[in-house]
Amino acid sequence: MLPIYGFGYNSIIDDYKVVKIKQFFRGDNIDFISSEVMVYTLGTDSWKVIDGAPYSICCTSPLPSFENIHWAAKKNPDYLELDSIVCFNLVSEKISETQFPKRVGKIIRAGVLGGCLSILCRTEENQAEVWVMKDYGINESWTKVISINHMTVIRSVDQLEVLCYSMNGNVLMKSRYSDLVSYDPYLEESRTLEIKGAPINWDPTVIYVGSLVSLNSCTYVGQEQAMWQTGHNKRLER
Fold this sequence. Notes:
Elements lengths: L1 E9 L4 E12 L4 E11 L4 E5 L5 E2 L5 E3 L2 E7 L9 E5 L6 E5 L6 E8 L2 E7 L5 E6 L8 E7 L12 E5 L5 E4 L5 E5 L4 E5 L29 H15 L1
Antiparallel strand pairs: 1-2, 2-3, 3-4, 5-7, 6-7, 7-8, 8-9, 10-11, 11-12, 12-13, 14-15, 15-16, 16-17
């Protein structure tokens, strides 16, 4: 059993939810059998179990985007490569599937680039291609935005991870051995970036958005009950 977790906020319902997916496999975690999905809602401070989905989620870290929770997954148990993106809707609490574009190479990994769902694939010519879904939820909007000759960046496309766009339009990537690479898609040139003081090997790499909201300013679960109990006890003491 391999548990998968996800956490998200949806502005429509103004609430936070945690998703826990238990995956059951046969043998040495190879043959996917079924899954169980549990959802925790902060507003009600409660868990509930919903119907699972016939997908084997292939990564433990969800894709942060679009006020829903996404994972790269496999639907065909006999297929060794990724073939879909699974979406958990925080409002309806339903699981749906986003198909990858057709006629692409081997899917290496899924991610988010420029605010869009993205995939990295390897072609038969051993080049790396990056595709993005320009219109969220529309399978026909998959568009190839980057094509990279792997020899200009790394020795193995399978070790490449596309992180984000930089302010000058270059693409920030992580290659094998935790090297950060800045790739210029127009000049088709790359350079390795050095982080002073960083360890030689580090993993994983996380993209984050800064916030001016302090966690200490938020109401935590049970705070209202604790405040009521404190006031009630003081009245009894009087």
